[in-house]
Design goal:
Length: 150
Amino acid sequence: MGLKEKLQSDLTEAIRSRNELVSGTIRMVLTAITNEEVAGKESRTLSDDEIITVLSREAKKRREAAEAFADAGRADKAELEKSEGEVIVAYLPKQFSDEELNALIADAVAKSGAAGPQDMGKVMGILKPQIAGKADGGKVSAAVKAALNK
């Protein structure tokens, strides 16, 4: 069963169990996937890797919205966004720990022969396919910068 089919079956289950948070969140995610499928000149079916990219983007939106609501003093809305984000993260592959990420970065720096911050593009080029959907790009970028500035 593909990721999209799993989302659809989980949606059906959430509707049956009257879990409004999960059903609403999965509906939003499926809508985002459908929008991605019909974007462009021709409609297409997304692969699981492309769906993971969409899920990562949606999870990031929820994380940022939760922070914005928390900063604005809207704890109720922040909690809702955080809960939606947790539902989405459940469908993403296991995220890299800081140790795993640092090991990948060290390996990429060694492979690319990066000498300083000007070589960040080389390192990120090696890391991108390895971290897709498994780590936040901003976090990775900051860690690479720190590693190259040593």
